[in-house]
């Protein structure tokens, strides 16, 4: 049983975890200092959002050198120290691999844009203008506007699925593939335990670059990207073949290295990213449906059943409830239900990924307009994208700047940081942090909760109930997603409740329980 089936992943957003050098931005030495917190939480692996040299147009998702560390975060030696320290804490370490695009400052792109005949020209995606001089097709950047940028120096457009500072690499070029596979080997050789692969379903585009069809469900007020269905710009068969090659590289380092693919697709297409048993692709195609779905028992029940049913026999499920791109769970459902959500995340069948700060229940953070940094928000203001709200610094204690930094942090803290911080919740039996630690400890103690079989159970309206079974061990979970008491769907010994106290004639308002 590989570790990543039993284990849990904790996402660290390096800019906002811990600053060690007083520049208001988190760094690798800071993360190393806080490993005790991560280990004590009871997770098994850390995924670091990008740490590579970057102009930070998209905060590291614009990579200018795939084989080094940005000076803001440290250097390769600091990385090696962090990796060794993580391993000494019993934690795996995953990096963020960004294969779809580089920074426009990457030497490859600098060369590529220099003239039409240089050897790197075909490393990116260059096309002639349409007959009217406009972009080659109608594709829209995920961050709004055309996905094509005209480069007057050479009279062609280049493709960028995200910012124009993030030109898309041409994965149909074997030299690009070889160079990027070498990047994976570079980090595997250094000892990393795997990668989260950024926008993996984007990496190959349809030959001939046909227009994308309109999305009949689009309406003003949702992201401009969704005006079109990304039929020809994403999820191409050739991308699956590349994922299988990436997997072969990972497997070449032994069975313990893991690949997690960032993939947003409906179930049937999503499941294909596991590949086949004979030719597997990623171990875990990220499943974001807990983020995308509303918070009601009937809807979640249906979603979970459909997701489980969509998995290939060799496909291991996974669940994500927060990230640096998504609104905070406690902001979405409120603090009481965020406790229920924690129990759901850690008792469903499949590898959970936790996001930093959710373990102390950080909720809504309003970013003053003059402090907005997220390029996606800046390009499409007012429709509620606002990724900064989930990227605010970790509040560690009640010291100035919450112990995050000695300087003003790059983003504001959560407004309640003086009381909502790690130190304040440590040792408080009723805190969110204690709940997370107990859930993670229970998960480790009971294989039924991690690798056990899964079966939905009947319960009253507003209650989500299921069973986990491993050999003779049977655990049942009942989650009250409403603010009123509900009948208990089953009896037994309560191993954990999201609420204090132990009177269990009913399932209390906003209560989740695990019963043996
Ligand atoms: C992924 C990242 C997001 C980034 C985008 C472009 O979705 O999670 O933060 O902006 O890719 O790289
Ligand atoms: Mg720093």
Walk me through the structure.
Pfam families: Alpha-amylase. This protein is an alpha/beta fold. It has helices at residues 3-6, 28-33, 35-41, 76-88, 107-114, 174-190, 237-251, 267-271, 289-292, 297-310, 329-333, 335-347, 375-379, 422-425, 432-445, 447-451; strands at residues 9-12, 45-48, 92-97, 126-127, 148-151, 156-159, 194-197, 258-261, 284-285, 318-320, 351-355, 453-457, 463-470, 473-480, 486-487, 494-497, 506-507, 512-515. The chain has three domains: 3-99 and 173-439, Glycosidases (TIM Barrel), CATH 3.20.20; 107-159, Oligo-1,6-glucosidase, domain 2 (Alpha-Beta Complex), CATH 3.90.400; 453-515, Sandwich (Immunoglobulin-like). It has 16 helices and 18 strands. An eight-stranded parallel beta sheet has the order 9-8-7-3-2-1-11-10. A five-stranded antiparallel beta sheet has the order 12-13-14-18-16. The radius of gyration is 23 Å and the shape is globular. 49% of the residues are buried. The structure holds alpha-D-glucopyranose and magnesium ion.
Largest sheet: 8 strands, parallel
As laid out across the biggest beta sheet, the strand order is: 9-8-7-3-2-1-11-10
Going by CATH, the architecture of the largest domain would be: Alpha-Beta Barrel
Which CATH class of the largest domain? Alpha Beta
Bound molecules: alpha-D-glucopyranose, magnesium ion
Beta-strand level of the residues, as a percent range?
Answer: 5-15%
Q: Per the principal axes of the C-alpha atoms, what is the gross shape?
A: globular
When the domains are counted, the total is: 3
Radius of gyration: 23 Å
Distance between the termini: 24 Å
* CATH evolutionary superfamily of the largest domain: Glycosidases
Number of helices: 16
Give the mean pLDDT: 97
CATH topology of the largest domain: TIM Barrel
The count of β-strands is 18
Structural class, from helix and strand content? alpha/beta
Which stretches of 5+ consecutive residues score pLDDT under 50? none
Helix content bin: 25-40%
């Amino acid at each position: 049983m590989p570790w990543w089936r039993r284990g849990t992943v904790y996402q660290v957003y390096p800019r906002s975890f811990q600053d060690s050098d007083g520049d208001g931005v988190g760094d690798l030495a800071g993360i190393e200092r806080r490993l005790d917190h991560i280990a004590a939480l009871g997770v098994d692996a850390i995924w670091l959002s990008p740490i590579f040299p970057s102009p930070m147009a998209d905060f590291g998702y614009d990579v200018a050198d795939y084989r080094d560390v940005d000076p803001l975060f440290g250097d390769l030696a600091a990385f090696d120290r962090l990796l060794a320290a993580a391993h000494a804490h019993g934690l795996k370490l995953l990096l963020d691999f960004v294969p779809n695009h580089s920074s426009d400052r990457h030497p490859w792109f600098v060369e590529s844009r220099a003239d039409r005949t240089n050897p790197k020209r075909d490393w990116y995606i260059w096309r002639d203008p349409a007959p009217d001089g406009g972009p080659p097709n109608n594709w829209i950047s995920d961050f709004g506007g055309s996905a094509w940028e005209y480069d007057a120096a050479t009279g062609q457009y280049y493709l960028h699925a995200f910012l124009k500072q993030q030109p898309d690499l041409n994965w149909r070029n074997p030299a690009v593939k070889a160079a990027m596979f070498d990047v994976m080997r570079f980090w595997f050789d250094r000892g990393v335990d795997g990668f989260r692969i950024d926008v993996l379903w984007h990496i190959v585009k349809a030959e001939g670059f046909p227009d994308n069809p309109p999305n009949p469900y689009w309406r003003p007020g949702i992201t401009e990207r969704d005006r079109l269905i990304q039929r020809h710009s994403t999820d191409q068969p050739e991308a699956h073949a590349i994922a299988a090659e990436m997997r072969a590289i990972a497997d070449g380092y032994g069975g313990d290295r893991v690949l997690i693919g960032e993939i947003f697709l409906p179930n049937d297409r999503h499941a294909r990213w596991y590949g086949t048993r004979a030719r597997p692709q990623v171990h875990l195609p990220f499943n974001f449906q807990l983020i995308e779905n509303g918070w009601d028992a009937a809807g979640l029940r249906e979603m979970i059943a459909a997701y489980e049913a969509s998995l290939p026999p060799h496909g291991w499920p996974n669940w994500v409830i927060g990230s640096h791109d998504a609104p905070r769970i406690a902001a979405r459902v409120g603090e009481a239900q965020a406790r229920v959500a924690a129990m759901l995340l850690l008792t469903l069948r499949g590898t959970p990924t936790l996001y930093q700060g959710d373990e102390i229940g950080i909720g809504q953070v309003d970013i003053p307009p003059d402090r907005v940094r997220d390029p996606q928000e800046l390009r499409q203001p007012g429709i509620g994208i606002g990724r900064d709200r989930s990227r605010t610094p970790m509040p560690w204690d009640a010291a100035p700047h919450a112990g995050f930094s000695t300087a003003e942090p790059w983003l504001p803290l959560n407004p309640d940081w003086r009381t909502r911080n790690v130190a304040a919740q440590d040792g408080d039996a009723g805190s969110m942090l204690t709940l997370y630690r107990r859930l993670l400890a229970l998960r480790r103690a009971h294989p039924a909760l991690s690798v056990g079989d899964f079966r939905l159970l009947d319960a009253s309206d507003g209650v989500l109930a299921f069973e986990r079974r491993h050999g003779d061990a049977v655990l049942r979970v009942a989650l009250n997603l409403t603010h009123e008491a509900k009948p208990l769907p089953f009896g037994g010994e309560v191993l954990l409740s999201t609420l204090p106290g132990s009177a269990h004639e009913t399932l209390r308002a906003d209560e989740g329980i695990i019963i043996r």
